[in-house]
């Protein structure tokens, strides 16, 4: 049997438990990968190469994996789960194309972004085309409710991006505001993957609700990890342009904690750094000195514990265990910042 694998990121930087979870669903995940490639070929030949490139750059396939694992945890992994996985990954890939344009990012997964290769105008249209194609695929489900929820999640993702863009450089942004934004723009697709994975198996409303809660909490924690990575990570290991959040005025959890917990005189200084873009390295150092990075890590780990607890209602099996292991793996990823 052929094994699913991706060239980037490096396997050494993927926690062993995530690798084990992927191995558990290797055959269906490989089928998902083939289906994603096939979707690129559904576009006009003049467009196909752009779509294929964007899909190859979209990451570790966490959302498809969660769709499949949710299916296994609540029954069987069917062809409908594979279709769900493909749709959610296309939506995710489309959001990344647009994210990179807005952030001016040049590298993702160790290779040039679409906007770096072809410019913003073409890349905007590319992302739009991928969104539209994903929503067209979602109409294939026999349950209209599945289609509605995919469309709803997509709308939430886009709304979250709009609100985040609207609130850039907004020093009045609260932690509650930030959490709502990242739930919309990131966690919503995680929640859709696990909720709809259970719904396709006609699980009980209680199990479906628990699976959605799991995905939302995991997705929120994962975004906090990604925000910490942008501030304190290593660009070579991350495989993408880092440091874009502060430069673009995105106030993430560590920064918000610093602003809300430092003396007023110091706050004015950090506000000026955020607005001017000068002295960013000094601000990043203060995140460690003031314990703001550590606070964000603890917050994310608490969410991961809550996500794992949400699964208690789901009957245990190897897929259930793999979902819990993914929570532990994200906690391990957060561990790289413990010494900061």
Topology:
Blueprint: H1 16-24, H2 26-40, H3 45-56, H4 62-73, H5 79-103, E1 107-108, E2 111-112, H6 114-118, H7 120-138, H8 144-166, H9 175-199, H10 205-232, H11 235-238, H12 244-247, H13 253-261, H14 264-276, H15 280-289, H16 292-310, H17 318-334
Antiparallel strand pairs: 1-2
Helix pairs in contact: 1-17, 2-3, 2-5, 4-5, 4-9, 4-17, 5-7, 5-8, 5-9, 8-9, 9-10, 10-16, 10-17, 13-16, 16-17
List keywords for this structure.
340 residues; mainly alpha; Farnesyl Diphosphate Synthase; two-stranded antiparallel ribbon; 73% helix; globular
Structure write-up:
By secondary structure, the protein is mostly helical. It has helices at 16-24, 26-40, 45-56, 62-73, 79-103, 114-118, 120-138, 144-166, 175-199, 205-232, 235-238, 244-247, 253-261, 264-276, 280-289, 292-310, 318-334, and strands at 107-108, 111-112. It has a two-stranded antiparallel sheet with strand order 1-2. Strand 1 and strand 2 (111-112) form a beta hairpin. Helix 10 runs antiparallel to helix 16 (292-310). The longest helix has 28 residues, at 205-232. The chain starts with 15 loop residues before the first helix and ends in a 6-residue tail after the last helix.
């Amino acid at each position: 049997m052929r094994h699913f694998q991706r060239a980037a990121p490096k396997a050494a930087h993927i926690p062993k438990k995530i690798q084990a979870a992927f191995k558990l669903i290797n055959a269906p995940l490989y089928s998902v990968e083939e289906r994603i490639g096939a979707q690129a070929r559904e576009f006009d030949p003049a467009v196909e190469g752009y779509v294929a490139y964007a899909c190859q750059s979209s990451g570790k396939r966490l959302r498809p994996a969660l769709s499949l694992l949710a299916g296994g945890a609540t029954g069987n992994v069917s062809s409908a789960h594979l279709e769900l996985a493909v749709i959610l990954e296309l939506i995710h890939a489309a959001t990344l194309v647009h994210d990179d344009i807005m952030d001016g990012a040049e590298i993702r997964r160790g290779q040039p972004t679409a906007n770096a290769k072809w410019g913003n105008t073409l890349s905007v249209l590319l992302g739009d085309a991928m969104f539209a194609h994903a929503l067209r695929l979602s109409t294939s489900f026999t349950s209209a409710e599945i289609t509605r929820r995919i469309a709803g999640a997509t709308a939430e993702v886009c709304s979250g991006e709009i609100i985040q863009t609207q609130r850039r450089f907004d020093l009045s942004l609260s932690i509650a505001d930030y959490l709502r934004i990242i739930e919309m723009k990131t966690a919503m697709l995680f929640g859709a993957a696990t909720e709809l994975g259970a719904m396709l198996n006609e699980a009980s409303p209680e199990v479906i609700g628990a699976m959605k809660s799991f995905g939302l909490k995991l997705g929120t924690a994962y975004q906090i990890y990604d925000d910490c990575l942008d501030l304190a990570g290593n660009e070579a290991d991350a495989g993408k342009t880092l440091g874009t959040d502060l430069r673009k005025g995105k106030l993430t959890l560590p920064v918000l904690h610093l602003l809300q917990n430092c003396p007023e005189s110091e706050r004015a200084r950090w506000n000026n750094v955020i607005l001017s873009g000068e002295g960013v390295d000094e601000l990043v150092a203060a995140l460690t000195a003031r314990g703001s990075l550590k606070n964000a890590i603890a917050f994310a780990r608490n969410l991961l514990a809550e996500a794992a607890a949400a699964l208690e209602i789901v009957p245990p099996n190897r897929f259930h265990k793999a979902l819990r292991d993914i929570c532990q793996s994200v906690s391990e990823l957060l561990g790289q910042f413990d010494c900061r």
